[in-house]
Amino acid sequence: MQNKFNVLLINPYAGFDTGDFYRTMSEPLGLLYLASHIMNKSDKYNIKILDLYALNPVKHRRSGIDNKFYFGLTEWDKIKELLKDFSPEIIGITSEFTGYAYCSVEIAENIKKYMPHIPIIIGGAHATFFAENILRKYQFVDIIVRGEGEITFYELLEALRTKTGIINISGITYRSADNNIVSNNNRTLINNLDDFSIADRTLIDMNKYLSISHHTFPGSGNYPIATMVLSRGCKFNCIFCSTKNMWQNQWRARSYVSILNEIEYLINNFKVKEIAFVDDQILGDKKWFDGLLDFILSKKFTISFQIINGLSVWLIDENLLRKMRKAGFYKIGLPIDSGNQDTLKYINKQQISLVKIKKTIELVHRLGFFSSANFLIGFPNETMNDIKKTVKFAYNCGVDIVYFFVAKMHTGSDMYTNCLNIKLLENIENSGSWTNINNSSLTISSAKLTDILYKAQKYYFIYKCFFLLNPVNFYKHLFFKLTFVKNYLIVFKFFMSAIIEIIYSIYKNIGYKLKK
């Protein structure tokens, strides 16, 4: 019997600066769909996912190397042993986010030194938009898979396994025999996402993800929690997001049958109590989503659901929210992004009215939902006053939890291109493509933005407690949640978090004064 071809897919560790508060540890769905598709297409491949991120899910520093914090296994000696045990013939590494992309290239460089003859392939959103530059700058990377990777990567494996050449494979960038950079034609997006298999969670240590889901999804109602993605793409044009360009401004969804099969697979095989949907844009087609809710209702699931990346606030209405509540949804994100109307116009979210959004949040809470919202600070040309407006709005809009982030210029976004054109970034060869981009503001230093971010996040819980002491705010934003018995535990967790934060702040301030 012919030996199988060993293919190793690597989910990298992640490094981040102190200004980054959140790095959720959820299943590497992109790699899982990729591996599952290959296994479904052919039995000639032995696929393994080296999930470095899950091997050490504790925040730590790398002594003597840099000042960043890391999640994941970063010790090269241990990684080398894992590589040796598997003896890969091809290695694929994902590189999704510009800010963390240097981790992918660092891994590639170390592997090439250890296994110089093994082809190293990098894919993902960042790699897609920076493909030629990556190959030009880093000789230890051999091939880039651009865009939707399942079909492209399978064809590439077949070509490398049979040594039949890669010049006719769409969606790849590589070096020719004379060392020139070649980008083949783009891969056409597949119309039917059901052509791809359900993600096979046995390829990773799923129990590790489930066991720490209370850290990944704090303030949730039921654990353990798994993640799912129901669609790909987004039709909107947010200036800071590369999703629209990654998926060619198209939105495609899986069939209801495929989605329900995966929900049942997670319930039956991993005993999940809740599923978090992590789509970039789950409301790409409201009629489709409404139909999905009908299917979920017909199944009478006992688990609950939440939407992480958010429901576009200009698309939701009372009828949709009521049906979601009946179907088991109880927690939703609202991607508001800014509390400044001029900034919303700059980032192409002029559909959002800050006046109307407060009414929408009241509606969400009246129907018993818990809410969260992301807010970004430090867009180009934002002033300190603009940032203060965003923080003030975030504190007073009524959402249960807010997350503050520094606006970053991800490769593939319009903001990245604009900032290159106005010389805010260096030339494309040295534009921070493999480093964490801390600051996209022309007027405020990175250190100052980080300080604002910390303080805004640190004092939010304290402010929220006082906010809810106002009887009007209590009625609008908490009273109706308490009509649902299942919500009591979440409310309790929220106030416990607030009390801990208050005690910690007092302790830190006392300690600071004593030192002085």
Task: Describe the secondary-structure layout.
Layout: E1 5-11, E2 14-16, H1 29-41, E3 45-51, H2 52-55, E4 60-61, E5 69-71, H3 76-86, E6 90-94, H4 101-114, E7 120-123, H5 125-129, H6 131-137, E8 143-145, H7 150-162, E9 172-175, E10 181-183, H8 206-211, H9 213-216, E11 225-228, E12 231-233, H10 243-246, E13 251-253, H11 256-270, E14 274-277, H12 286-299, E15 304-307, H13 318-327, E16 329-337, H14 341-346, H15 354-366, E17 370-377, H16 384-396, E18 401-406, H17 414-421, H18 446-458, H19 460-469, H20 471-477, H21 488-515
Parallel strand pairs: 1-3, 1-6, 6-7, 7-8, 11-14, 14-15, 15-16, 16-17, 17-18
Antiparallel strand pairs: 2-5, 4-5, 8-9, 9-10, 12-13
Helix pairs in contact: 1-7, 12-13, 19-21
Q: Any overview of this molecule?
A:
α4 (101-114) links the parallel β6 (90-94) and β7 (120-123). The chain is globular and about 70 Å long. It has 2 domains: 5-183, Response regulator (Rossmann fold, 3-Layer(aba) Sandwich); 215-407 and 445-503, pyruvate-formate lyase- activating enzyme (Alpha-Beta Horseshoe). It contains 21 helices and 18 strands. Helices cover 42% and strands 16% of the residues. α12 runs parallel beside α13 (318-327) and α19 (460-469) crosses α21 (488-515). The protein is an alpha/beta fold and 516 residues long. The longest helix has 28 residues, at 488-515. Strands 3-1-6-7-8-9-10 form a 7-stranded mixed sheet, with helices on both faces. It has a 6-stranded parallel sheet with strand order 11-14-15-16-17-18. A 3-stranded antiparallel sheet has the order 2-5-4, with no helix packed on it.
